[in-house]
Amino acid sequence: MPRMMTLDLNLPQVLIAYHSHGGNTRKMAEALAQAVSDTGCEAILETVGESAMEKLPSVDGLLLGSPCYFGSMATPVKQFLDDSIKFFGKGMLVGKAAGVFCSTGNIGGGGETTLISMTLGLMIHGMVIQGIKSGGHFGPLAIGEPDERVLAECRDYGEQFSGLVKTLFADLY
Ligand SMILES: Cc1cc2nc3c(=O)[nH]c(=O)nc-3n(C[C@H](O)[C@H](O)[C@H](O)COP(=O)(O)O)c2cc1C
Fold first, then answer.
1. Containing domain of residue 152, as a range?
2. Mean pLDDT across the stretch 36-60?
3. Mutate to test the pocket of ligand 1, among 21, 64, 102, 104 (most ligand atoms within 8 A of CB)
């Protein structure tokens, strides 16, 4: 079920949009949302789909999450990106912050390629991608159910991402 935290229009907004069949990616999304909302941004937590798509042009940042399916993002996440073509021509996502996260089954099972596959569409939109200096360089990555180390990484990344959003949109809030 999509969930939304209380909205405060005086704060920058971050959409955390994800697909999760078994709950692993969802747990990462929840940890990211908590960190984002603890550090001065509004977190909007949604599964990928129409409701998340409607919010995309108005939010300041997007964190996009997917399980690794055959070394790439799951179909609903690819569909979400493909459907975002409607914002492309008008450059509606240019300059917004973006980041990615992933849950995979195995070490070397394609988690990093999944993360990178998601960044491609976001970069083509002109979004500003937040990497990670330590840990999973391309975004938080869990092998199976996220353990305490991965959840801590999600919290750190969520905080770092909030910082990027607040910097990019400092003149608006
Ligand atoms: C269709 C399908 C393809 C998958 N492909 C891979 C894969 O290529 N490599 C891998 O390590 N795990 C693969 N997995 C395992 C999932 O990435 C893993 O179980 C993940 O934690 C599921 O996330 P979720 O609980 O959010 O749905 C696949 C699972 C499914 C259902």
1. 3-168
2. 97
3. 104
Pocket of ligand 1 (CB under 6 A): 20-26, 67-71, 103-106, 109-110, 144
Paired tokens of 90: 């008008």
In a domain, 173, yes or no: no
**pLDDT score at 133:** 83
Q: Give the pair of three-digit tokens for residue 44.
A: 């909007």
In angstroms, the CA 89 to CA 92 distance is 8
**Which residue's CA is the closest to the ligand 1 atom numbered 25?**
22
The structure's pTM equals: 0.95
Please report, in angstroms and rounded to a whole number, the separation of the first and last CA atoms in the chain. Answer: 30
Domain for residue 24, yes or no?
yes
Residue-wise pLDDT tens digits, 149-162: 999 999 999 999 99
Does a structural domain hold residue 93?
yes
In a domain, 118, yes or no: yes
Task: Provide the domain count of the chain.
Answer: 1
